User: What shape does this take?
Amino acid sequence: MISYIKMKTIDDKTVKHVAHLARLELSDKELKLYSAQLASILSYISKLNEIDTANVPPTSHALTTLKNVFRKDILRKSLETDEAIKNAPASEGDFFKVPQIIESTDRVQDEGK
Amino acid sequence: MSVKYETVIGLEVHLQLATNTKAFCGCSTKFGSRPNSQVCPVCLGFPGSLPVLNEEAFRFAIKTALALNCRIQELIKFDRKNYYYPDLPKNFQISQYDMPLSYNGFVDIAAADGRRKRIKIKRVHMEEDAGKLIHPKGENYSLVDYNRGGMPLLEIVTEPDMNSPQEAYDYLTKLKSILEYLKVSDCDMEKGSLRCDANISIRPEGEKKLGTKVELKNMNSFKGVKAGLEYEVKRQVSVLEDKGKLIQETRLWDAEKGVTASMRTKEEAEDYRYFPEPDLVPFVVDKNEIEKIRETLPELPEAKAGRFQKEFGLSDYDAGVLTSQIDLADYFEECTKLYPDAKAAANWLMGDIMAAVNARNININELGLAPAALVGLLKMVDSGSISGTMAKEVLAEAIETRSNPEDIVKKNGLAQISDKGSIEEIVKNVLQKETKSVNDYKGGKKTALGFLVGQVMKASKGKANPVMVNEILKKSLGE
Assistant: This one.
């Protein structure tokens, strides 16, 4: 994993990579624009690196006092099938319909059966 | 000069937890329902919806981690694993990255030399399942059913501690046995409740560095795991022997063809951009709570096997077999409550009954033969009312027709004649008829006895107790 925080600047290659992961197509002009903007944001944030955090536990959540929020294992009504797929751009029968994904380099989910 | 290679295997098991509802919403986890009928704004990832962790799923997870001798993380948090694939409606999976639920556990298996071998568990963490994709043949689209999406999963990851496909198989069998004892999952591979992926590499014996690893997927049974790994060992050895180079890749096991095939090489490293799931607050389980859950752990297979050896005088092997499945162990123990000869009950269970169970690919409780019915059969053998051979036939019929062995014996008049007077009467009649054989026997032709026994059995329509027939015949012939 790339540690974005530690980077003072960000190069076009990284922006291209992140854009690909997010399935965003960027023109060369956009690439330049976003690289510059992201670099500026990152350098701003990197100011945090000046603080000594050796004795500070990692903060994973904004609400540090809230913990252990559970739900009982009790059934609640689901959406009706028709309701669930109503807003989908495409559907067929009871299913959501999506373009076929040719196994890409990203990931192929273990599909069970 | 040929190099000897060592196989190194690590396994990753995904287990669906048997809760009523999904991991983060109240949708049902029932299998085989109408597509997209068990979905809601949370598991469909609609904007503004909030996941809330299922308390039971969390408890099951801690329980499993403890049974696998894991340490529970002091602060448990969830993370988003980001990737784009249509089986994930949110484009990320709620999983756990750097602070998993638990870590550093182990499972002991019986190694090839009979000694125990410890397989280390690297981590056990919680995550949600993805939806199911269907690819209609010849079409350029896919259909998605999100009923499975958001189901609670445990991922159980071992260290690369197994050195043969057989060890991988033994580990899986043991793990499944423990999971069944815990009753945290139905462990049904056919329904996908239990799935297994493997990492396998080979290295020259004595080499410390791991070889290039292959990730093996698509194995739908433990036998498939073993067969896939066996194929991979051979393939990898032959690549190296041909001076070839192994590449790090994912390969799929094709059970029909009996081969593994590359699923296309990964051109770039996986980059899931994990970050903390902001919608779920952290979880802290204090020591008292952990101990409380530990107290709910049932007697696990190894402890039960030890007790069976001590209490019932079973051998190590027999106790191991009988405790390998919780249902079988419970069945056996029920028999011992009704019948004093535990060893005899064990033999019948491990023999004809397990054969019938395995042939039907069912659970012992689905056989339709209650422990009391089996005990009834054993008691009939003990009292001499049927022979051991006959008992086998009665048992087969009882299983086939799902009826009570005692009823079968009664209905078909199969009960042996063990009444001395009755047998003596039959013997007397036979001896009067078969004077030639009687003279042969008395003249020294001992084989004539077999013929006479046969005649008595025939006259009794096979019901006379053969041991008694032998005794009475010999006596009547003046021995």
User: Anything to note?
Assistant: Chain B touches chain A through 73 residues (CB under 8 Å). The mean pLDDT of chain B is 92.
